[in-house]
Amino acid sequence: GGSHAMEEGARFLGEGYHELTDGTFSVNASVSAQRFRMSGGTLTGAGTFTSTGTFEWTGGTMSGQGKTVIPSGSVLLFSSGNTKYISQRTIDNSGTTTWSAGHIRGEYGAVFNNLTGGLFDIRCDYRFYRQNNVNPIFNNTGTVQKGTATGTTTFEYVTFNNTGGVTVNSGMIQFTGDSRVTNSAVFTAASGGTVRFAGGSYAMQEGTQFLGEGWHELSGGTFSVNAPVSAQQFRFTGGTLTGAGTLTVSGSLSWSGGTMAGEGKTAIASGAAFSISSGNYKYFNQRTIDNAGTATWSDAGHIRCDNGPVFNNLAGGVFDIRNDRSFYRNSGSNPVFNNAGIVQKTSGTGTSAFENLTLNNS
Predict the structure, then answer these.
(1) Which residues on neighbouring strands pair with residue 69, listed in sequence order?
(2) C-beta separation of 87 from 111 below 8 A
């Protein structure tokens, strides 16, 4: 309790803890601590607080224009069920940050930098979220991983810039609200994991890869493919997939809802599976789909086309119809279906309609 001013030369040494439980702890210069525990109060100031050993954060607020630095070899622990408040302050992590409990609330443009060599280890199903009108920023050039909790960890109204690696071994990492993700690196979902883009604006740049046997899923928001992007397993249930780049799927692409739009391409590689399922309409707007694998249209939903989209069923590709629905033009010029492979109907006893469509069959 009280007001505490830490000036140049302040150091906290030893194997025991120095603890902030209440009051205002102002870091006004470069200050270092070997073992520090924060369970309440406010750590603030324009200076840099460097933790050279273990920083245990169970409650309270980090604020001010300064930085909290976790160097290589040091540890930051987010523990207890209390919400941790980051207001304006920047946290630089080059060590290991373990998030095991409690929400993280970012205010007034707080910044978390997970630097090269840094590990942000998620072991919980809580939220990292925005409180006011300015998104907190999470810059990752290191590794973000989730490996023990089986529920959903949510980044909500967060600007997430990834040039490192994000791995989900179990459960889900979800981006939602007005989250804004810019990615030029690797997301990996293991067989028990899912990465979901559920709301916001997502920019996939050169170098983006979606790897692993788990699903990467678009369920809401705008997902812009701005360069060549590759995916092993991709599920599309809602939102808009757009952009001038090419998304190439080498394993499975599942389309059960949402819009494919933009000037780019969605490519299904040879040997890959493209499932068009569920009773939802699929909206196909301007974009090109290249199918060299097996596309199975088995649902109760129509495919609605706007502004002349193109479906290329390439040599070796199969377009297998298992329903009695329509592939049709809604507005603009006719959709184009170029078939150099096989189009077949293997189930459904009624009529499958290609309506107001240009079909070129070789």
Answers:
(1) 50, 92
(2) no
Q: Give the amino acid at 84.
A: K
Q: For the segment 235-250, what is each residue's pLDDT rounded down to a tens digit?
A: 999 999 999 999 999 9
C-alpha to C-alpha distance for 196 and 209, rounded to whole angstroms: 14
The alpha-carbon radius of gyration of the chain (Å, integer) is 25
What is the Cα–Cα distance from 43 to 149, expressed in whole angstroms? 29
Average of per-residue pLDDT across 272-294? 97
Check pLDDT > 90 for residue 132: no
Q: Is the dihedral of CA 298, 299, 300, 305 positive or negative?
A: negative
Q: Are 58 and 83 in contact (CB under 8 A)?
A: no
Mean of pLDDT values over 108-135: 96
Residue written as token pair 């997939």: 241
Distances (CA, A) of 180 to 160, 175, 276: 6, 8, 28
Question: Can you give the pTM of this predicted structure?
Answer: 0.96
Tokens for 103, please give them: 């929400």
| Cα-based distances in Å from 122 to 67, 125, 150, 177, 231 | 22, 8, 11, 20, 23
How far is it, in rounded angstroms, from Cα 10 to Cα 157? Answer: 36
Round to whole Å and give the CA distance between 269 and 271: 6
| Of 299, 291, 293, 229, nearest in space to 257 by CA | 299
Question: Among 90, 211, 103, 204, which Cα is nearest to 139's?
Answer: 90
